[in-house]
Amino acid sequence: MQLMMFLLRRLIRLVLSLLVVSALTFGLLSLAPGSFAGIQAAGAGSTGLASGRSVDLTSQVQQRFGEDLPVWQQYKNWLGPALHGDFGYSYKYPESTVGELIVAKLPTSLALALIAVVLALMIAIPMGILAAARRNSPWDHGSMFVLTAATAFPTYLAGILLVLIFSSWLHWLPTGGWSGPRYAILPIIALTIAPAGVMARYVRSSVLEVLREEYVVAAFAKGGSRRIVMRRHVLRNALMPLVTVVGPLLTGLVVGTIFIETIFGVPGIGGLFTEAAQVRDMPLLMGTTLVFALMLMLVNLLVDLSYAVIDPRTRTGLGLSTEPAERTSGPAAVEAMMEEVKP
Amino acid sequence: MTARTDDGGAALVIDRTSEWGRRWRRFRSNRLALVSLGFLVLLALLALFAGVIAPYDPNTPDYSKSLTDPLTGGNLLGTDVLGRDTFSRLLYGLRTALFIALTAELLALACALVVGVAAGYFGGKIDQLLMAATDVMYAFPTYLFAVILATVLGRSTWSIILAIAVGSWLTQARLIRAQMIKLKTFEYVEAGRSMGAGSMTLIVRYLLPNSLGPILVTTSFGIPAAMLAESGLAILGLGVAPPNASLGTMITDGYTYVLVQPNLIFWPFFVFACAMLAFTWVGDGVRDAFDPKDE
Amino acid sequence: MQTQDRPLLDVRGLGVDFRTRDHERLTAVKDVSISVAAGGSLAIVGESGSGKSVSMRALLGLLPQNATVHGSATWNEGTSSTELVGLPARQFQAIRGRKIGMVFQNAMQALNPTIPLKRQLTEHLRWHSACTRAEAEKRAIRALGDVGIPEPERRIRMYPFQLSGGMRQRAMIAMALVAEPRLLIADEPTTAVDVTVQKQILDLLVDLRDRGTAVVMVTHDLGVARYLCEDVVVLYSGQVMESARLGEALDRPVHPYTKGLLGSALDLGDPSPLRPIGGNPPDLVDRPPGCAFQPRCVDDDGARCAEPQELITVGATREVRCWRSIDE
After folding, report:
1. Residue C270 forms contact with B (CB below 8 Å)
2. Where are the beta strands (DSSP E) in chain C?
3. Which residues, including other chains, have CB under 8 Å from residue B241's CB and lie 6 or more apart?
4. pLDDT in tens, A279-302
5. Facing residue for C162 by CB, picked from A224, A228, A323
6. Does C166 touch chain A (CB under 8 A)?
7. What does pTM read for this prediction?
8. What is the ipTM, given to two decimal places?
C-alpha cells in the first residue's frame, strides 16, 4: 500500500516535471534567433540542397504551428498531440515522425551507455575493494593515482585522447563512423574511463568507511577472519550505496553519448539532439529533450526503488517487509525519531 | 576549534586562525596538489600575459603557410589551416577558456549564495521554489539545458558564460542551503541569536565563515566543470564564435585535421588535459584538507 | 575466587602508540598492568581519553593499522598459556569471541544494520566449531531468552533497527554470550542506555559473574563499578594510577586522582557539594615527563612530582602510582 502511494506520488512528480521541462524548452527556443527555414536557406546555397522543398516545408510547418500566434498558443498546439505521444514530423527528416527517429536511434545510445556502466563497474568494484583492503600500500596509491586521473577525462576528452593514441598515432582503430563492432570500441572505452574512476574511488572510500564501523570491529571481536568479515559485513554494506551513484552515472553517460556520438559520428539519440539544436528542428529537439528527461527521471526512480529493496530499513518504511518495527512509545520513540533525523 | 567568549553583543567567535593554518599545512603535505596548484598559477600567468608573450596576432591569417609542422617558419607549434600561429592562439585560447570558466563559476556561486542562504536560513517560499526547481532540474540534464541556452543566447563569450552559469548554479545553491540548515541549529548560532544578534549578523559572522570550507571545495570542482562545459559546447558547435580562439574551439577545429596535422589538436588538448588533471588534484587536496576522512 | 595460581588474563606493561595524520606519535596507553582471575570481576575506571577502551581493544588486537602495541598480555587456561600481543591473526580468531567476548557501548553501532539478528548471533558459533545451523539457532534463541528478551523465537528474525534501544543492547550482549566465553569485556555497556535499562543490564552481568564467567567492566561510573566488581583499576592518561580491591579504594582512596574521581561522583545520600577535578587531561603527544596528573593535582609538590612516578605496592592488594603512598 505504502509502495503504491510512493509510486503514485513519484509518477505525478514525473509528469509534472516533464511538463515543466517541455514548457521551458519550448519557451526558450522560441526566443532563439534564427529558425529552421532561415538556417536551411543559408545552408542551401553552399550544400546544394533542394531549397525549394525546405521552404515549402517550412510554410507547411508554419501553418501547422501557426508561428504568428503567441508562444503559449504554439505550445498548446504542440502539447495537444504530444500528450498522445505524437511529436509530429521532423523538419530535417520530413519523411519520419520524431517518434520513429527516436525509436530508431535510441537503442544504439542505450546500448553504449549500458555497456559502459557495466564495464566501469567491473573495473571499479574490484579495484576499489583491493585498494581499500590494502590501504596505503603502493598498490593503493598507484591505482588511485591512475583512477583519479581518469576522473579528469569525461566522455569527449577521453574520446579525443583515445583517437590521438589509437587512430592518429598507432592507426589501429578508425576515428569515427559506424559500420561494424570495431567502430564501437573507442566510443565505449571513452564512455567507461571517467565513470570507472569515479566509482572506484567511491567504492574505496565506502569500504574504508564501513571498515571503521563499530559492527565491523564487533565482527572481528567475535572471531571472524579478515576474509569472512570483509565478505559478510563490509562488502554488502559498502556496495549498497553504490546503487545511488550508478543512477546519476548512467544518466550522465546517456548525456555523455551526446558528445561521444558527435565526435565519433555514432548514429544515436545524442547526435540527433545535437543536430536538432544546430538546425532548430523544433519537433525533433522537443522530442529528444523529453526523452532524455524521461530517461533521467526513470533512472532516478529505479535507483530509489532498488535502494529501498536492498536496505531493510527503507524496506520496512515502504511496507515491503512483513515484520513491522517494534512499537515503542514514550522516550524510546522520541529517541528513535532522533535517529531517523540523522542523515 | 575552541569557542571563546568576548564581552560584546555577538559574543561567540570560532577561533579559526589555527584551523586554517592546519588546513594549509594539510594541503601542503599533499605534494601532488601543491605541484598542481603551481601549474595552474603558471597557466593563469600565461593567460594573463598572453598579449606580451604571443609572437603573432592570434586571429590574423597568413595564407602562405597552412598546417605547418612545429618549429618551422618561425612558428613554435606550427600553424592552423588559415596559417595562424598555434602557439599564439593557444595562449589566447587559454585566456578565453580560463576567463569563461572563472567568470561562470563566480556568477553561479554568487547566485547560489544568495538563493542558498535565503532558502536555507529563512526557509518558506524561497525554499519551496528552490526545491521545486531542483525537482525539475533533476529531469533536465545540466548539459542539455546549457546547450539549449547557448542555442538561444548565441556564441558570444558572455552568452556562453551565462549558459554555463545558469546550468550549474542550482546544485551549488542546494549545497549551500543544506549547509545553512545544518549550521543554523548549532549551539553557537542559537547562542548568538539568544544574545540578540540579527539575521544578517548571524549569517555574515557565523554561518558564512563556517560554510567557507564546503564552498571552497565546490568552487575548486566547479571551475574545471565550467571549463569542461565550455569545451563541451564547442564540441557541439556552440563555442566562442570565430575567429576568436578558446581551448574548446581549438580542440574542436583541430579534430577535423587529426589525421592530417595532429599537432593542431594535440597542443590545446594537452594543455586542457593537464589543466583538468591539475584541477582534479587541487580539488582533492582542498577536500582532504577540509574533511580529513582518514583518522 | 582465585582457583589457579596463574590469573586467566595477565597484562604486564601494555602500551599503545598511534601514528597520527601529521606523523606524530600519540601515546594513548603507556603502562597498563592488570590481571583477571577465572571468575573474577574487574572494573577499569577513568575519564574519557584515559585509554580504557583502547587498552581493551589492544588486548583483542582490534586496533587500526596505525596503532602499535607493546608489552605483554598472556591468556592462561589450564597448563597452556598464550601471548596475545603480536599473536598471528589465525590464532587470535580462535580466542576472540570464543574465549574472550566483547560487549560494546552502543548496540545501534555494534550490530550490523543490514543483517537480521539470527545471522549475527549464530555466525561465530559456526566459525568456531562444527555446529549445525539448527543447533546454532537453538543456542542463539536460548541466549536471547537468557538476557531477558521475550519471544526470542520471533525477535531473532528481526533486524536491529526493529528492536527498541534496551532490547538491542541486550541482544548485543547475547551475541557475546552465545559462544560462552570465559571472559567478557564490557566496554561501557550501560553508558548509552537509560537508567532502568542500565539496572537490567548490570543485573544480567552480575548473574553472569555468579555463574563463573570473568568480567572486565570498562566504565567511568564508580557506582556501576561498585555494583558489579571486586577489583578496580584507575586509569589516567594511559597509566594505572591505582589498583586495589574496589571496596578498599572507595573507602580509603590513596592516589589524589582516585580521591578526585570520588569527589566528583554524584552521591545522592551525601549533600556535600561536588568537587570536580580542575583542568583537562594532558596532551597525549607531548606528555609531561613527570607524573601525568601533576598539572591537575591538588597536592602538587613541585620537584618530586616532576619526576616519573613508579607503581608502589601498598599493603597486600594495592598498588599506587604516587611517591606519597610510600608513607601509607
Report:
1. no
2. 9-19, 25-36, 41-45, 67-77, 80-83, 100-103, 183-187, 214-219, 231-236, 239-245, 312-314, 318-320
3. B154, B155, B156
4. 878 888 889 988 888 888 888 788
5. A323
6. yes
7. 0.80
8. 0.88
